[in-house]
């Protein structure tokens, strides 16, 4: 199964991707996670990316397209993949199309998760992520049993640098301008499946599953 998860920041792409990984045993490829790992490492690419990420702007297309090209070469992608947060511009979508055509890989679906702006702000200002295993929590909607500690591995929970309200609003503006046009793009390609992203996490997963089966 080869999937793309599309949607505004905080729509639940990462949350749903992790559940799809468990169900279908295919890797989640999150450009956001890969970029944050590069920032943490302090690699030249990470340092360059950080300047954009801290302002809520998109990292240049050539950087992220290069990341995806390398990642899709790995063996674990042979059985399928879930692209989470890529593509985000028409140029990225076109590059992906060329890349997949060269590899003779077909996309099965593009799941577009829709959530309104105020819900996004509520979700992202309360998001906490485990430094160790990447598990995700929300201080109100899905809190850990012990504050600041991951239920799964005992790791420390942290708040992302770009989850401040001002940066979230900048990310939403960029989403509308540069990423939302992909909804029409994938509709034209006959791949788009729209999912209402509000409600319980499990309920949304059931909606996605019923589309995929
Ligand atoms: P990235 O990491 O991809 O961030 P994003 O797309 O803004 O998405 P988020 O991770 O914020 O949200 P999500 O939809 O995954 O929601 P989540 O499941 O976490 O990108 C970060 C930055 O990297 C970008 O701004 C850009 O600079 C750069 N970048 C990345 N990819 C790029 C690309 N392709 N091109 C250029 N630049 C790129 O959920 C959020 C919260 O809500 C959590 O706390 C969760 O527990 C909670 N939640 C989830 N579902 C529900 C629910 N149903 N009800 C209540 N709470 C819920």
In short:
The protein is α/β, with parallel strands linked by helices and 213 residues long. The chain has helices spanning 13-24, 31-41, 44-53, 61-71, 90-102, 117-125, 165-179, 181-188, 201-212, and strands at 2-6, 28-30, 81-84, 109-114, 127-130, 136-138, 157-158, 192-196.
Characterize the structure shown.
This protein is of the alpha/beta class. It has a domain at 2-27 and 74-116 and 176-212: 3-Layer(aba) Sandwich (Rossmann fold), CATH 3.40.50. The chain has nine helices and eight strands. It has helices at 13-24, 31-41, 44-53, 61-71, 90-102, 117-125, 165-179, 181-188, 201-212; strands at 2-6, 28-30, 81-84, 109-114, 127-130, 136-138, 157-158, 192-196. The strands form two sheets. A five-stranded parallel beta sheet has the order 2-3-1-4-8, with helices on both faces. Strands 6-5-7 form a three-stranded antiparallel beta sheet. The longest helix is centred in the C-terminal third of the chain and has 15 residues, at 165-179. The radius of gyration is 16 Å and the shape is globular.
């Amino acid at each position: 199964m080869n999937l793309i998860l599309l949607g505004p920041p905080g729509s639940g792409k990462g949350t749903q991707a992790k559940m799809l990984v468990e169900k279908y045993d295919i890797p989640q490829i999150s450009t956001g996670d890969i970029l944050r790992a590069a920032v943490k490492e302090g690699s030249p690419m990470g340092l360059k990316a950080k300047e954009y990420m801290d302002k809520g702007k998109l990292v240049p297309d050539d950087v992220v397209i290069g990341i995806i090209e390398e990642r899709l070469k790995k063996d674990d992608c042979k059985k399928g993949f879930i692209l989470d947060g890529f593509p985000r511009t028409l140029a990225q979508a076109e590059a992906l199309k060329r890349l997949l055509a060269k590899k003779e890989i077909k996309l099965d679906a593009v799941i577009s998760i829709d959530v309104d702006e105020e819900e996004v702000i509520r979700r992202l200002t309360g998001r906490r992520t485990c430094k160790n295993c990447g598990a995700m929590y929300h201080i109100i909607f899905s809190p850990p049993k012990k504050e600041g500690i991951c239920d799964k591995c005992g790791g420390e929970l942290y708040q992302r640098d770009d989850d401040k309200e001002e940066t979230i609003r900048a990310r939403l503006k960029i989403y509308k301008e540069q990423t939302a046009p992909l909804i029409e793009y994938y509709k034209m390609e006959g791949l788009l499946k729209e999912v209402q992203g509000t409600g319980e996490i499990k309920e949304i997963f059931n909606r996605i599953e019923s589309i995929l089966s």
